[in-house]
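Reminder: ligand-aware prediction takes two inputs, not one.
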Amino acid sequence: MSLTLSCPKCDFETTESLAKCPNCGRTLQSAKKVRILGWVLVLLGSFLVIFMGGLGIILGGIIAGSGQPGNSSRFTGGPEDVLFIFAIFGLVIAFGLVSVAAGAWQIWFGKPNKILRVTMFVVAGLLLLIGSMVRFLD
Ligand SMILES: [Zn+2]
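Here is what comes back for the chain with zinc ion:
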């Protein structure tokens, strides 16, 4: 059972000890390796969700408490800035959640889930796009 090999590119699967995929020539991954990578994704994803979630709550508190007397921290941005910040936070958290889902799938089935991988790339691409926009605005 642990000898099942799968291709990361196409959906080829085999129990034979082949080194490369006969369909596309990619190096085959063992279910064990896919599961270890799955744990890495789950850990990274949960870290992102917890870290960004916590940071978002702190930031939300600063924004909500801004301008009140006796408050040391002040948020000087407008409503668009708030929306922008939370869009980035939301995307990073979404990326973390998809990573956890993709990792959990890999641990459970011993092979990657294409749709979840594509979703990860799309969310990461959106983040990079927003990140480059921030740099451009500065
Ligand atoms: Zn293949």
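The radius of gyration is 21 Å. The chain has three helices and three strands. We will return to this case in the review session.
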